[in-house]
Structures are given as structure tokens and as C-alpha cells.
Amino acid sequence: MKKIVSVMMGCYLATTLHAQENVYPAPQQSQTIAIVNATVHTGTGQVLPNSSIIIEKGKIVAIGGNAAAGAKVIDAKGKHVYPGIIAPDTELGLTEFESVRATNDFAEVGDINPSIRSIVSYNADSKVIGTLRSNGILLAGITPRGGLLSGSSSVVQLDAWNWEDAAYKSDNGIHFNMPRLMARSNPFGASASGPSNDAVKAAMTRIESVREFFREAKTYLETPQHSETNLKYEAVKGLFNKSQKLFIHCDLVKEMLVAMDIAKEFNFDVVIVGGTDAYLIADLLAKSNIPVILNQPHSLPVNQDDAVDQPYATAAQLQKAGVLFCIANEGFWQQRNLMFNAGTAGAYGLSKEEALSAITLNAAKILGIAAQTGSLEVGKDANIVISTGDILDMKSSVITNAFIQGREVSLDNKQSQLAERYKHKYNLQ
């Protein structure tokens, strides 16, 4: 019976995960493209009415120029043009069905796994990817989970045949999941291992184990020759030469203070991921030059004493303090709502262009790809979205065209195909 169930589950996964789709990655740009008569939002805070963008060989070659003879002209009159949205922290492509263990490939066994590379597990055929593209999200930072040091993240572009094609910036950061420094109430009183406050002591012990790992790695990397290669130490070499950043996942003030101390001790480029209470130490974060990836603004505060709408207002408070931040969303399929989360931040103190920067240029800066993308500027990759309305507004935003490195990508996805299928069945065309 177990064998029969296993075969049935295998057939289900094969048909569900690997069914042939009629959505293919776009070929390399071969013709000059001119987007004309558009309202251009550059991502830098500028808005250029009735402007144009010229794209050649995957790059933006002119803004406000005239279309050359033979160019493909896209008339965007009455529409808005934006940089491609960037999802900075997601398990996209690393999981497909949360409830099906076989599709989850984002965590490794053990606590210290810096040598694990998320990019090699990235599934470019994930059906979720199309739902992001159709909402204007063109790049994503795919992030491993689990343990203390969960591995390296990479930035991918969302129109590719495989992970090699998708890689936009590989292994840009190492991720540290800081244990929660909060005493947990124990309804049964003291346990056999001691009072509930021991949870904080245990968390500090685990944090110290990570510090000790970095100290050992530093000693190893400073040694000219080794009798054996240690892959875990080699994996964090980029932290010490600053070709990588250390992304520390934490929310509470005391946790962020520990993160700052780690940055100071090892001279790492540190990014806070989560940062629910970042507004309480915004000036200190700005002074320490530590960016923040704000996770899921559409959530409740961590502390019971906080205002219920505090997560909506945190972005504006960080902006006012001069903290470099971007906005993220938790999970993978939820990423399609990323721009609407930014829109909420726009209603709680950010200007619309600041909210746009929080999911474009700021995200690119934090992920280390701002020289290539994140804004509409001459010389950068043509990662561009055209919308009928305000991309931050769920009601008016309808994406009509999207380009990744100058390639016009399909906006079709599994959900839109199902919608068309049942429109046809019930004669609703």
C-alpha cells in the first residue's frame, strides 16, 4: 500500500511541477526599442512626463531621445514606466508547495552551513515566477533558511531556462538567523532545564557560537597555506574582503544591537533583515551605516505596547532618520503583493517616489546591484515595467509590458491561463 501511495504522489508531483507550459523565456534583444509618450518614474525620485526611453542591446541608451529609424516603437501614452521591482528576500524558486516536503529546498540540516548556495537549488520553472512578472517584479534575492548560518543568497532575474541563465549576481551575501532574545512565558512554571528566562541565555550561547566560527574563519583565511580545505571557512571569505554582505535576520532592539557589535568586531558590511523595531534606534542605524530590509509591513507589531499600525509607519521613520532601507515580503508566492506593501508605506509618511525607491533603487543598493539596475538611467540594464496606472495601487495597476535586460518577457502565468480556460468553458470571453 505504501508503494502505491508513493507512486501516486510521484505521478502527482511530476504532472504538477513539470507539466509543459507554453510560456518560454524571451530571446535576446535584437531590435532597438523606443518607449514613447510615457510618464517615466526613474526610481531616483524624478518623474518625467511625456518622455521616452530608448533600449539597445539590453541597455538603456537614452532617456528623452527620439526613436531611430527601424526601432520598435511602443506608444505608452497615458501609461507609467517604472524600473523593474526587486523582491530582496524570498524563497522563490526554492519551494513550490509549502505542504509538500519534496518541493521545499531552502534549508539544510545543522546550524552552521555558510557553504550552502541557494542559487544551485533555484527552480527557474517554478509556476509562481510568472505571477510575479505579471505584477512587475523582475528580480529577486533568493535566500536560504534554517539554522544559524543558512548559506549564501543570490539575485536572479525572473525569465530564464535554468539557474545558470537566471543568475544576476551570485552569492552576494551570507545569512545569519539570529536566535530570538526574548524571554518566553512558561504556563507550567520552571521546566526541568530551568526557568523560561534561560531561553535568552541559550540564545546568547548560540550567537556566541557564530562569533567563534567567524573568529576561526578569520584565522584560517589569514593563514597562507592549509593542509586541508575547509569549505565553510572558504565560503565566508567574501565577508572579510567585503565582496559579500552579512544579512542578519532579527527584529528586536537588543538583537539589532548585537548585529551592530558583530559588524564592528569583524568589520563586516551588515544588513538587518526584518527590523520590526528598527524605528526605535533609527538614528543609531543611520550613524552606523547599517541598511535595513523591512519584512512584511502588513503584519502586527512584535511588542504588545506598539501602535497597531506601527509597521506601516516604520519605513517613513527610517527615511526621515537617513537609514538606507528597502521593503520586502515574507514567503514566495506573497511577493506579488510587494508593490502594494510599498503603497501602504506611501500612505503612512513616504512620498510615492520614496515608496517606489524602497522596492527598486534602495533594494538594488542593499543587494549590491545598483550599478546595473534599480533605476531608469542611461547605461543600466533595461529592466523596465509599463503600467496603465500607479504601480503602487492595487486598483489601478495593470502591467502591459515588461522588459528584462531589454528582452520583452511574457506576462502570462498559470493563474491567467486557468482564468482563460474557465472563461472559455462558460462562454465568458
From TrEMBL:
Q: Which UniProt keywords apply?
A: Hydrolase, Signal
Q: InterPro entries from the xrefs?
A: Amidohydro-rel, Metal-dep_hydrolase_composite, Metal_Hydrolase, Metallo-dep_Hydrolase
Kindly list the GO molecular function terms attached to this UniProt entry: hydrolase activity, acting on carbon-nitrogen (but not peptide) bonds
Q: Where would one find the signal peptide in this protein?
A: 1-19
Which residue range or ranges hold the Amidohydrolase-related domain?
342-409
| Family annotation (Gene3D superfamilies) | Metal-dependent hydrolases, Urease, subunit C, domain 1
Coiled-coil region(s): none
Q: Per its record, how is this protein called by name?
A: Imidazolonepropionase-like amidohydrolase
- Give the lineage: Bacteria, Pseudomonadati, Bacteroidota, Chitinophagia, Chitinophagales
